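We modelled the chain as a single entity of 451 amino acids. Its sequence is:
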Amino acid sequence: MQTFITLNSIVNGSTNWLFELIINFIFREVLPNLWILISAPFTNPQMMWIVTPLLISMTLMQLYFARHRNEELGWNTAFGNSISLIFVSINLLQYLFNQFSWSVFNIFNPITNKVYLVMIMGLLSFIQLLINYYHLIPKKIAFFINSSIPTNLTAYISIIIIYTAIPFKLGTLTAGLVLLSVLIFFFNKLKKLIPMSKEAEDYIIKQEERAERRRLWQEKMDARQERASDAKMIDAIIAISIIVLMFASLIAVKSFIILPIFINPLIQGLLGIIITFIIIKKRGLSIKNLNYDGDFKEFITGVILGLPLFLIVIGLVYLAWFFVPSSDLSRLLLSGLEHANTNLLINIITFVIIMPLGSELVFRGLIQRSIKSTTNQHTAVFSQALLFSLVSFSFSILDGLSTPFMALSVPIIFVSGLILGYMRDKWGLESSMGAHMMFNTIGIILMLITA
């Protein structure tokens, strides 16, 4: 018990001593020096010629940024402020030299300490200049250090130390920090009273709208991630197995019956739709679990991106044609003419609606989701694109297009599958559907034009 009493008395004594030390420091060092910093220009009128421009420029800068709140200090302004501090250092050194001539450089002269202070400030300003020139530190830190209040206040305090007898010690430095805090607080309050410009108001509204869109987008991504948490690799295996089985069945049927040219893509699309909905139904899921939210904007995004996707694929196709015999090109053109001569409504239903929907649901929706559950995004996108290209090539064989060009089309279809896969992850399944539909629509239009 006595030990606790002794410890308590020691702690209380130490606390009282520290409290007294802080109070004495504030009232004997900080407050007197703070008063000198504030009143010095009025007691030393010769300082007004250099102090007044500093105060005016600081106030005007604060008022400017209060009205134009959409703007911020730039690296160029920070660089300019560091240059101004160098000029202030040179001016103060000139003042000391005019007052004390060469004696200011005598190490035994008390004034020499002020010379050292000015030289150190000039050196630090030069270092700041290099930092701002090469952008060596984070922007927020650099912009605060070189903003109008810290820059002008540094120059102001240096001027008072040089022009007056105030010593440069801990009390002066603390008083300067207190004055800095007071000025920042004062001008922040003043800014709120100044009406913003119309441009600044519009900018702030846009920033708030962007922040809200980012928040909603993040909520959507989180919801999609949660919906995809129950994905299983077995879903992809089942889907591929059914496609292979259906492909084998079509081979058997076509050996006995001649089917119209549009039947293969129609069956391929319907098969993808049926497989997808059977699996998600059996698993107690919904189409939303495939990264589909019914967002029309995302669908339009895909439609817009369908054109550059088509141009990329066409570019690869023309490149491949240099390695294809003319006989193969003739067969492909005849196949295209046969498609074009098919009823327009059938072409639209098959190639613009059913085939893109089926491919996107089964490959970018079901298979990509399932593979991603046990691997990662890039592996899932790569795998579904590879399967997509191989299945597309396999069905083209059923149309009698087992040519060298169709073999070269595998990497081309693979590239389009990659693009559609990343679009699905970025903007949802709606976007890859829109892009695929747009891609096929352009193809149908070109076939009709060239028919």
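As a brief sanity check on the tokenised model: Residues 197-229 form one domain. The CA atoms of residues 4 and 10 lie 10 Å apart.
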